[in-house]
Amino acid sequence: MRKLALSLITLLACQASFAQDKPWQGKFEQLGTELPTPNEYRTGSGAPGNAYWQQQANYDIEVELNDQNQSITGKEKITYINNSPDALSYLWVQLDQNVREQGTNTLKVGQFSLRDSLPAKFAAQGLGISDYDGGFKIKSVKDDSGKDLKYIINKTMMRVDLPEKLKSGDSYTFGIDWSYNINDRMEDGGRSGLEYFPEDDNYLYTIAQFYPRMAVYDDYEGWQNKQFLGRGEFALTFGNFDVKITVPSDHIVASTGTLQNPKDVLTKDQQKRFDQAKKSFDNPVIIATQAEAEAREKTKSSKKATWHYHADNVRDFAFATSRKFIWDAQAVKIGDKTPLAMSYYPKEGNPLWEKESTKAVKNTLETYSKYTIDYPYPKAISVHAASIGMEYPMICFNFGRPNPDGTYSDRLKYRMIGVIIHEVGHNFFPMIINSDERQWTWMDEGLNTFVQYRTEQEKYDEFPSRRGPAANIVDYMKGDTKYIRPIMTNSEQIVQFGNNAYAKPATALNILRETVMGPELFDAAFKEYATRWAFKHPKPADFFRTMEDASAIDLDWYWRGWFYSVDHVDISIDEVKWFTMRDENAQVENKGKKTKKGDLAQKEDSESAMNFSNGPEPFSLIETDPRYYGEFHNRINDKAVMAKFADKNFYQMKFQNKGGLVMPIIVEFTFKDGSKTTEKIPAEIWRMDEQFATKVFAFDKEVTNITLDPNLETADTDVEDNYFPREESTSKFDKFKGKEGK
């Protein structure tokens, strides 16, 4: 009783110490109040609450592209529906083209330095030396009756003041007229713009962020009106779009939405091929041929044509147009739907694009539908443009251009396929599962890159995936933490953007699937998240909570380590001891070894700690003292236990967590007969001691070699201490060297 009382006093003292020393935070401490408090809008399970709401914005747009002076002129009517419980006195509209206006904050906050030799292109970009007059020219903002509305433009945001508050459940319609000059992407990059082809004096336009767009108003933070500086992308509201696009009559237009007037803009042959494509599931049908495209390149028609598109329940709208376009399409079977996979590309993309692009679109729709929801839209388009990868609903713009003679390397082919999968995959994240990119880049880029990796591995043989495999993130994870930020960092503050927002979260999800949760539980939980939040606005806590809710696995330690910290994985084998049970009826062999004295003996013992040169150490099992049974009347059969232990080999291993990131311990044992077995210890082994863990393994056979993380599943940053015996396994991981940080 006295011993029990002392134990309780000690425990209470420890608890009091922790309370006084807060904020103490262990690796397995629950996220708790670090996540938003659940409410009627977002539940503790990660699902939308019974009072969840979101706004809607419907657009009627008429836009004309001028191929002579490379400009856009447009007018739009926006109907904004207030589904929130709040009355709104003003609306915020995004003016993303203003990131290119004179005096943009993007240039002001960007850091740039001169060096001895600097390409002129980079100097012009870094210092903003350009004659280009960018940004929206807002001509008018009027209510539905034509009366001017008061508005204030703050860089990339415009506040429109309402004549009276917009009450909950009501809608408001207003119009904006605008224009802007299309940027040359060769000069300034950018997510959209033009590409000029001097060989035939033609343009290829990839047009996005081309209209003033409603900002998101939600239950989480009200208006998402953070300025667009160029990196943190977009938070957008779902709605219906009716868009009329006027271009030169010899252009082919690729666009979000369904074409409403094919007879007005397509030839009879193109209409016939288009209908054939809707029934072709095995191969693409070329709707606009290369010969037709080359003929159009020479016409330079002065006439105009208007392409009319309609899209329901999308968060954005984009299009591409050129007289250079070749166009192919094929049908894809997704559940009870048959969306079209399409590609648009100039002749400069062939033969690579005709061979691979639409196939990649099809593979993407099939794999992403498997892991999330069935693709709901009528089509998915891949458009070829130089040096870009950018996504919009139903359409994306992708790089991958062969040499002028049509030849290309395997590296270019796989990079092109990878970017097409990635950008088409963005239809799911964030175009459908509509996260806030302005705040959390990883929620769309990271999740998307993870499913991209699944597509590459499942649809292609030996695809050289860059992001996803654990070994490929090692160099980043073990880097100087001054240049690393947690995944849970706002988009504009991220250092090493590609590693942080794409590669690390994708790798974390891959490890979570393959090593921590297992594919069955992970896939079910991931699909539940996608189903719950399709066509809604999820936040990080909704993802974290859903993955736990749908799997019955406590993952707070995993989110804390991989998403909230800059710790890395480095687990070592510090010690291995081999034991066999002592035969009490026989003379113990080498009994005198325990009595060795002197420096030489100590040195031998130290060296043998990392090999089996001293053989097994004996230990004894004794009969259980009755006091250990407490009030129980029945007893264990000690002799039977001893008999079971008699011929076994016991291996006591001590592990050290050097990197700080707790992870499962995966141990591969190689036996004397050459056979192997793998033991996987859950990460919870580190709960009571986050630095050291000791575990005993029992086998019938003798072990000759031990390897920690044999398949490089955990992104361990130092594999030199992952094997035993040390001197016999120095080449164990040679086959993996060179893969890390690929």
UniProtKB/TrEMBL annotation:
- Keywords in alphabetical order: Signal
What residue stretch is flagged as signal peptide?
A: 1-19
Q: Could you confirm whether the keyword Chaperone appears in this record?
A: no
Family annotation (SUPFAM superfamilies): Metalloproteases ('zincins'), catalytic domain
GO MF entries: metalloaminopeptidase activity; peptide binding; zinc ion binding
An example GO biological process term is:
peptide catabolic process
Renumbered residue ranges of the record's region Disordered? 589-610
Q: InterPro entries from the entry? A: Peptidase_M1_aminopeptidases (IPR050344), Peptidase_M1_dom (IPR014782), Peptidase_M4/M1_CTD_sf (IPR027268)
Q: Which CDD domains match?
A: M1_APN_like
Q: Which top-level group of life is the source organism from?
A: Bacteria
Question: Know the name of this protein?
Answer: M1 family metallopeptidase
GO CC terms, sorted? cytoplasm; extracellular space; membrane
Which positions fall inside the Peptidase M1 membrane alanine aminopeptidase domain?
362-562
Organism per entry: Fulvivirga sediminis
Mark out the compositionally biased spans (Basic and acidic residues): 597-606
